[in-house]
Amino acid sequence: MGTELKIAPAYRDSHLPLYQEVIAGDPVPAPALLREYSEIDVPVARVSRDEYRSPAFAALEEERMWPRVWQFACREEQIPEVGDCVVYESPGASFIIMRSAEDDIRAYYNSCLHRGMKLCAGDTSVTKLSCPFHGFTWNLDGTLAHVPSRWDFPGLKDADMNLPQARVGRWQGFVFINRDHDAPPLEDYLGHLPGHFADWSYADKYLATVIKKTVDANWKTAVEAFLESYHLAGIHAQALPFGGDASTQYDVWADDPHVTRFLEPTGVMSDQLPRALSEQEILNAALSVVFAGTEPPQLEDGMKARHYMAAGMRAAMSDADGVDYSAMSDAEAADAVQYSVFPNMIIFRSLGYPYVYRFLPVRGDVNRATFEFLIFKPKPKDGGMVPEVNVVDLGEDDTFASAGVLPPWHGEIYDQDVYGLRQCQAGMRDGGDRDILYSAYQEVRIRHLHQTLARYLSDDPADTPGRAQA
Ligand code: FES
Ligand SMILES: [Fe+2]
Question: Which CATH number goes with the domain that contains 455?
Fold first, then answer.
């Protein structure tokens, strides 16, 4: 008698298939890493709503968490030439991410060692870093190059005037920084991520577009709305016939405090619908949302809606990218395979969602955050230069749908999320003092985020994830 592979929590009670059951019937099978399931007990069931609305809590995050985590700062292709700089405004500290040599990237604190002026006001390209206030100047390697009226600083030593740096880590074209020189290396911090993206490299992709939107929500409210599919019925009801919320798999791993994932199947109905839908009904509903106006085909006997949709996605993306995706698994082609990196990054491993998100607090306003939505494209095969990133800055009244860079139905989904975030934050802010409650399974990634956050905020540095125990 073999032991049955565990693929759901024991207390799950739904008549709909689990993710592993869904993909087991796929004609183009999923790779091994999608056939894994991991569940651990994350006890955090309730947190104070002050975590989302109190300036004092935000200040604690800025003091204890942000300075000790690896943060995605920019992409390497944003700084292709020596001297290229991106300014990354991290909570509580501004950085110049600079290509200081052909294969060296530095993160300098964006502040002059004379009287503190910002050295760079925005992204730029320099041969030396010269302060706009009085002209102190540094070489690209951070050594002091020039002090106007040097005689006026008697005793000043060049050796004491190197620009301070944060650590830089690079993974698949993503440049990360960390202010904590005792933190674990980036490759340890990223836990399951490098292994799971070994065959899905973002190094082969370039950042084509960034949509920036200020949302009326704490940065955690914003991240968390993308860590669960449970809100499908409330916020994205149009996707109930095919969005797979009840069949979504949520993975958290022991000894991986920074990375979680969900596997959300496409072409599977929700258990919040009153009756079972046929595969044909699922397909009709999906196509009416995804490709409004197209006449849905009659599904052949035995073909499921998700298989039709996966084939459609492979064909559409092969056309768009000029890359042959015909051998890609149905799961990778059609589903939302999505990972989070603590604290504020979300990254997809899905053909139809070539997306990464970053969320950052808005300084001085605990009820707002910036939501940066990054869209990637495959790099040209000839290794040629990639175009400069197209930045779409959405104003207060601008919508994702109006940005014109996403498939229309994705635009609609994200606009619904922005609305949901605003209402959620407003309710948390103005709704009294009862604690916030998280579900056991569908919100386990949110529990996990708060568990890791609590470890960073702890008085005891030994609680910090990944820190060598004394
Ligand atoms: S503040 Fe930078 S040179 Fe004076
Ligand atoms: Fe959503």
Answer: 3.90.380
**Count of structural domains, the chain:** 2
Ligand 1 atom 3 nearest Cα: 134
pLDDT in tens, 35-93: 999 999 999 999 999 999 999 999 999 999 999 999 999 999 999 999 999 999 999 99
Ligand number nearest to the C-alpha of 147? 1
Same domain for 290 and 333, yes or no, is yes
pLDDT higher than threshold 50 for residue 275: yes
Q: Whose CA is nearest to atom 4 of ligand 1?
A: 134
Judgement on whether residues 256 and 134 belong to the same structural domain of the protein? no
- Domain boundary (178, 211, 228) is at 178
115 Cβ closer than 6 Å to some ligand 1 atom: yes
In a shared domain, residues 199 and 169: no
- Among 153, 178, 203, the domain-final residue is 178
Q: Does residue 114 line the site of ligand 1, with CB under 6 A? A: yes
Residue 5 inside a domain? The answer is no
Beta bridge partners of 132: none
Give the pLDDT confidence of 245-271 residue by residue, as tens digits.
999 999 999 999 999 999 999 999 999
State which residues form the domain around 235. Answer: 19-50+192-460
Global confidence as pTM: 0.97
Atom of ligand 1 nearest to the CA of 135: 3
Of the listed ligands, the closest to the CA of 153 is 1
Burial of 127 (0-12, 13-18, 19+ CB in 10 A): exposed
Cα 5 to chain center, whole Å? 30
Question: What whole-number distance in Å separates Cα of residue 37 and Cα of residue 56?
Answer: 38
Which tokens go with 219?
């940065």
Write out pLDDT tens, residues 98-141: 999 999 999 999 999 999 999 999 999 999 999 999 999 999 99
Q: β-strands 345-348, 355-362: how paired? A: antiparallel
Q: What is the pLDDT of residue 469?
A: 47
Q: Is 366 in the same domain as 230?
A: yes
Question: Does 157 fall in a domain?
Answer: yes
Same domain flag for 356 and 303: yes
Spacing, Cα 80 to ligand 2 middle (Å): 34
Q: Is residue 422 part of a domain?
A: yes
Q: How far is the CA of 409 from the centre of ligand 2 (A)?
A: 12
Report if residue 438 sits inside a domain: yes
